[in-house]
Every structure is written in structure tokens, then in C-alpha cells.
Design a protein that fits this description.
Order of helices and strands of chain B: HHHHHHHHHHHHHHHH
Largest interface: A-B, 48 and 51 residues
Number of helices of chain A: 12
Strand content of chain A: under 5%
Number of helices of chain B: 16
Structural class of chain A: mainly alpha
Low-confidence stretches of chain A: none
Mean pLDDT of chain B: 87
Largest sheet of chain B: none
Oligomer: heterodimer
Distance between the termini of chain A: 69 Å
Helix content of chain A: over 70%
Radius of gyration of chain B: 22 Å
Number of strands of chain B: 0
Chain lengths: 310, 387
């Protein structure tokens, strides 16, 4: 039975779904990267994802328009980001704990709306696969990389874009300055508050899309607590990836490939305790945190509210 | 507390008023949400209240729900006072419960009370280990405890699923095709005694007693003072000769231990077995998170966490009645809990501002060292030191 796992079709299946499953981690992780580079830990990602997932699903279900669903998820995520920005920037609240508050809020509200507005689990026809011309005809790689739905392509395209914005633009410089030394940035005329509002709202928006990618592209259902910890992992991936978009992508792929492998193990009925397999990436993340924390420095002002000295 | 100044009772008054205001604000937003869902908020809240406190049984259920919240909350008040953010209550409950259950399933020839005591110790230890790992990682490897506790939650869930599907599965279920992932039922001798003819069990009483012990620990022992000092100002603490790393680990160990105990009370007092639906909340009922809400509402004070836990336990129980009477899903309460957390944490800014003003005022008379003042002026003791 184990040998089945190594047949070509199964391997291709594992890799293809691994790429696909990386999508929510990528959106949420890239969004979180922006927030953390500016010094704000958004621990409410999970809540934003759940509300985004619900908004996207409900809109897609009622209007039949998937893109409207994505827009709705973005709006909901941005709105939550806006509130979170007010709480963490203006009210200078403890970011870790308030993030748990936002998580519980999103968890409860998405469940409430789901039960009130839908009541039963329904399915939508989500984004379907798009074969990229020529590329999808490549042997093996074509199926794995170039026959995915549009949200997958966008997620991976975000990685170089985020890298470019953070490292090669004035905006990125401001974000990093605010995250490393807000006092210095402030004295140079950069508005710490405005930069952080921007990154937190951007993070919320992308978390919303992450939720949408689950509910109308990957799974095509909405269920209560359907993210089941995925948003928290996305936060950890930012540490894992050392606050760099490419690193976040590496971590996202690690988690998604293990998930994919575990799903296939179940599908094929291979008697490996899959619970143990699922545990591995978490353990690995902790080990990576231990190994890298001495070499890679977090943004200096991370989790520190900024108040101009009086 | 002998030389109480007028300012002190005044500030205590505000300290209590802030979370209550935060709670009322959350209820108000909840009322708006209910109105949007075309439900009469008054009717919904009346059902909520009635379901939580309206009868002897309701009250007993509320106290049953409050028990894990209080235990987790006690741990949270220790760790947050030590400036260690323990998000790992869910995992610590699970591991504590697993260890406690193992004791009950294997020590069949022992007297019931002895097994219960051992199971509680095992749960305490299990939670302590699960909290201690992130503690060591934070203190000695500089790994952010928020992340590591979240990871430990996920690992604990998988551990539970693995054990309940495999090694710990009820032998009867192992025979069946359904293979429900649950352990065998604990024998009757191992059940926590009921206090009154309801479902209220001894665990509630134990939790209240522990609350007073945690109070003594935090404010009447050197260890507690040091945990708080490290939380207040690690640099000054180090300078004063406190082994900061050791107290960071201790804060998480204790925090986890109380959550582990909460897990054991769920098994020995409520369910009499462990069963998993694959998720953490399926076992914990999210008490690992809601305990944070209760502790924050109780001002991170062990005694304050008692009424706070009863309140939030009541909300959880009352939510079921609300669901039956006005068809509002109990998920509303989860959302409101989240708002309470956000409001309470946000309101800290007023406390800090008040404290700063007070320090500035005190500083004009005499330059007192602010760093060894305890508890961020939560009992107004900043003034005590400065004056």
C-alpha cells in the first residue's frame, strides 16, 4: 500500500494539491508580514479569515458572482483591520491579547451569521481551474503548477510583489523604518500611525481573501470554524520565514505539502497514524523558531505601541 | 493597605468600573446585532439571564461551566502578571486531561479518592509540562511564547486524536466498525462527588479554594512577588538579583498546570471520559480562550476572576436557553466575549494615563522609584510606594 504513495499520479496529486493548499497561508502570511514589519502583531488573522470566508461564500451563494464574493471578503477584512488599527495604534492596546479578542469575535460572528442566514451547509461552484496556455502542457509540472484556480496564481504572484514593495520602494522603507525604529521614523516626518493603519488594513484585507480562498476556491463550502487554526499558523509562518515574503512562502509550502500528503494517506487508506503526521509541521516550526531566533532578528518595535515622547 | 488615601478607593472604584463598562458596551453592541437579526434584544437577554441564573439547575450548570474558566483564568492571572502571554490553555487542558484520564483508566485497583487525587496531580503535571516547554523556549531560546503556545495547542489536539483513536480507545469501540474516538468510561468510584443534587461537582469548590491560594502565592510570597516584578520590569528585576529566566518558566509552568487541572475536572466531574470530534474546542469548549476573557475581566486578580468566571460561565449556559427561546445561536456569546477582551484591553490606556499622572504628581513631591511598585497601580499601590 505504501508503494502506491510513490506512483507518479499520486505524487503529482500530492504536489498539485500541496500547491493549492498553500493559498490561504500565503494570503494571510503575506498580509501579516506587512503588519509585523511595521511593528504590529495581528493575532486576529483567524477571525478575519473566518469572516472573510463567510462573506465570500454568502455573497457568492446569493449573487452567483465569485469576484463579488472576493470583494466582500476584502471589505470585511479591511473593516476588521481598521478597527484593529484603532485599537492597537490609537488606544495602544496589548496586541497579543486584543488579537485573541478579534479572533473570538470573528469566530462567533461568522458562526452566528452562518446559522442565522444559511442554517445548513451548502456548496457553491467555486473558482475553477484555469490551464495556463502552453505552460499547462508541460509534462508533470504543467498539472502541478499551471492548472490551478485564479486565487492560487494571485497568491503566488503576491510573493515577489510583497518582496519588491518591502525592499525596493519608499513605502517599504517607511514600513521597515516604522517597525525598526518608530522614534527615528517619526522624527524624519514619517507618520507612524498612518503607516501602521495602512499595513494593518492591508493585512486584514489579505486575511479576508485568505478566507475567501478557502470557502469559494478550495473547499467551496462554509462551516463554522472552518479555518481551524490556519490563521494562527499563518502568523507563525511569518516568524518561520524570518519576516521575508519568500521565507513565508517556504513555510506555507511546507505546511501545505504535509497536509496534502496526509490527505492522500487517508484517501489511499494507508495505515499510518495521520494525526502524528499532521503534528510534524508544528513541531518543525517550533524547532525552526529555536534555530533561527538567534540569527534572525524580529523587527525591533514588534508589539510595541508607539507614543511620541512628551 | 492600612494608610488608605482618598485617591486609593477612588482608583479601586475605577478599576472595577472599567471592565463592567467594557462588558456593558459589549452587551450593547450585542443588542444592536440582535436588532439587526430582527430579534428583540430585551427578550434575548432575559432568556440569557434566565438560562444562566434563573433556577437552581441553571445556577449549578453555570457553576459547572465556570469551573474550567476559573482554573484556566487563575493560570492566566499568574502568567499575564509575569508578562507572559499564555495562549496555550486549550492544549494544556487537553494534555492535563489525557494524563489524568490515563491514571483513571490504569489504576483500577486503587481506592477512588486516591485515584482522583493522583489524576489531579497528573493533570497538573501534564499542563505544567505543556506550559513549561514554551516557558523554557521563551526564557532560554527567546522564542515568542504566543507562537509556541499556539503551536503546542495544535500538537496537543493531534496527540489527543492519535491517542483516542489508537492506544487509548475504548476497547468496546475498538471492536466496532464505528470506532468512535473515545476512552472507556471511568468507573463510578472515580467521579468527582456532587455538591448538591445537580451536576455541580467538587471541582468547583476546589477551583475556588485554589483561587485563594493563588492570591496568597501572588501577593504574600516572595515567589509571587518575583513573578510580578519580572512582569513589571525585567531589567530592574535582574538588577535586583532576581533570576528572571527562572520566573518566566515558572509563570508558564503554573499557568499550564492550572489549565491541566481544568482539563481533569472536565473528565472527572462532567464527562467521565475523553472524547474527541477532532478539534480542541470539542473537548475544552474553548475554555482555554474563555478563561483568558474571565481573567482579564477579573482584573488578572485571582479573587476577581471568581465572579468573572461565574459571569462568563453563565453567559455560556444562558446562551443555550437564548438559542431555544429566541433562536439566536449561542455563537453570539463567543463574539461578545471577543468584544469584551478588546474593550478591556483597550481601556488599559486610561488606567496607564491615570497612573502616569499620579506618578508625575508624586514625582513632584519626592522622586520615588517607580519600578518596584507592584501591579501597575492596580490596587493603587503606586501611590503607596511613591508617598
Amino acid at each position: 500500500m505504501i508503494s502506491e504513495l510513490f506512483s507518479m499520479t499520486v505524487l503529482i496529486g500530492i504536489l498539485a494539491s500541496g500547491i493549492r493548499l498553500a493559498t490561504p497561508y500565503l494570503y494571510a502570511g503575506i498580509g501579516e508580514t506587512f503588519g509585523q514589519r511595521s511593528g504590529v502583531l495581528n493575532l486576529g488573522v483567524e477571525g478575519q479569515m473566518l469572516l472573510g470566508a463567510f462573506a465570500a461564500f454568502y455573497i457568492a451563494l446569493t449573487t452567483g458572482n465569485l469576484w463579488l464574493g472576493v470583494l466582500g471578503a476584502m471589505a470585511v477584512g479591511a473593516a476588521m483591520g481598521l478597527v484593529m488599527a484603532y485599537v492597537t495604534v490609537n488606544l495602544q492596546a496589548e496586541q497579543g491579547i486584543s488579537g485573541i479578542g478579534f479572533y473570538l469575535f470573528g469566530l462567533g460572528l461568522s458562526d452566528l451569521l452562518f446559522q442565522k442566514l444559511m442554517g445548513t451547509v451548502e456548496t457553491v461552484k467555486g473558482f475553477s481551474e484555469i490551464d495556463l496556455p502552453l505552460l499547462s502542457d508541460l509534462p508533470v509540472l504543467g498539472v502541478i503548477l499551471f492548472s490551478q484556480n485564479v486565487l492560487v496564481y494571485i497568491a503566488f504572484a503576491l510573493v515577489p510583489i510583497a518582496w519588491f514593495v518591502l525592499n525596493k520602494t519608499t513605502l517599504g522603507l517607511k514600513i521597515r523604518a516604522v517597525g525598526e525604529n518608530p522614534d527615528a521614523a517619526d522624527s524624519l516626518g514619517v507618520s507612524v500611525a498612518r503607516v501602521r493603519y495602512f499595513t494593518i488594513i492591508l493585512g486584514g484585507t489579505l486575511s479576508g481573501v485568505a478566507g475567501a480562498s478557502l470557502s469559494i476556491a478550495l473547499l467551496n463550502v462554509f462551516q463554522q470554524n472552518m479555518t481551524s487554526g490556519l490563521g494562527f499558523i499563518a502568523v507563525a509562518l511569518v516568524y518561520f520565514g524570518a519576516w521575508r515574503p519568500w521565507g513565508v512562502m517556504g513555510g506555507a509550502l511546507l505546511f501545505s505539502l504535509v497536509n496534502s500528503l496526509q490527505l492522500w494517506i487517508q484517501v489511499l487508506g494507508i495505515p499510518i497514524p495521520s494525526d502524528i503526521a499532521v503534528m510534524l509541521p508544528y513541531i518543525l516550526t517550533i524547532l525552526v523558531l529555536v534555530a533561527t531566533v538567534s540569527r534572525v532578528r524580529a523587527p525591533s518595535a514588534l508589539t510595541r505601541p508607539f507614543a511620541r515622547a512628551e | 493597605m492600612a494608610n488608605s488615601s482618598p485617591e486609593k478607593w477612588y482608583s479601586k472604584y475605577i478599576d472595577v468600573a472599567l471592565p463592567i463598562t467594557a462588558g456593558l458596551a459589549a452587551l450593547l453592541i450585542g443588542a444592536v446585532m440582535l436588532a439587526v437579526l430582527r430579534v428583540n434584544p430585551l427578550e434575548a437577554y432575559a432568556a440569557l439571564w434566565d438560562g444562566a441564573f434563573g433556577s437552581k439547575n441553571a445556577l449549578a450548570e453555570t457553576l459547572v461551566k465556570a469551573t474550567p474558566l476559573l482554573l484556566v483564568g487563575l493560570g492566566i492571572s499568574i502568567s499575564f502578571r509575569g508578562d507572559v502571554i499564555n495562549i496555550g490553555g486549550e492544549g494544556q487542558m487537553i494534555v492535563g486531561a489525557l494524563m489524568g484520564t490515563l491514571v483513571g483508566l490504569h489504576m483500577v485497583d486503587w481506592p477512588g479518592w486516591a485515584v482522583i487525587v493522583l489524576a489531579m496531580l497528573a493533570g497538573f503535571t501534564g499542563g505544567a509540562i505543556w506550559g513549561g516547554i514554551p516557558g523554557v523556549l521563551k526564557a532560554y531560546f527567546n522564542v515568542n511564547e504566543i507562537l509556541s503556545t499556539v503551536m503546542m495547542n495544535a500538537i496537543a489536539v493531534q496527540l489527543m486524536n492519535f491517542l483516542l483513536r489508537g492506544p487509548m480507545i475504548d476497547p468496546a469501540q475498538a471492536e466496532l466498525a464505528s470506532k468512535i474516538p473515545q476512552t472507556a468510561r471511568l468507573s463510578e468510584a472515580l467521579r468527582l462527588p456532587r455538591l448538591v443534587p445537580t451536576r455541580l461537582h467538587l471541582g468547583a469548590l476546589i477551583a475556588v479554594i485554589l483561587a485563594f491560594l493563588v492570591y496568597i502565592l501572588l501577593w504574600r510570597t516572595t515567589t509571587g512577588y518575583r513573578i510580578r516584578a519580572v512582569g513589571q520590569n525585567p531589567d530592574a528585576s535582574k538588577y535586583a538579583g532576581i533570576k528572571v529566566k527562572r520566573y518566566i518558566v515558572l509563570a508558564l509552568v503554573l499557568s499550564g498546570a492550572f489549565a491541566g487541572l481544568a482539563g481533569v475536572t472536565q473528565v472527572y466531574g462532567v464527562n467521565y471520559r475523553m472524547i474527541t470530534d477532532g478539534s480542541a474546542s470539542g473537548f475544552t469548549g474553548s475554555a482555554g480562550f474563555n478563561g483568558i476573557v474571565a481573567a482579564l475581566f477579573g482584573q488578572l486578580h485571582p479573587i476577581g476572576t471568581i465572579p468573572a468566571s461565574i459571569l462568563f460561565g453563565g453567559l455560556l449556559v444562558g446562551a443555550n436557553k437564548m438559542q431555544r427561546v429566541v433562536q439566536v445561536p449561542s455563537a453570539l456569546i463567543t463574539a461578545l466575549n471577543g468584544l469584551v477582551v478588546v474593550f478591556v484591553v483597550s481601556s488599559e490606556i486610561w488606567r496607564k494615563r491615570r497612573q502616569r499622572r499620579r506618578l508625575a504628581a508624586a514625582g513632584e513631591d519626592e522622586a520615588g522609584p517607580p519600578q518596584d511598585a507592584d501591579e501597575q497601580g492596580k490596587n493603587g499601590s503606586q501611590t503607596e510606594v511613591a508617598v
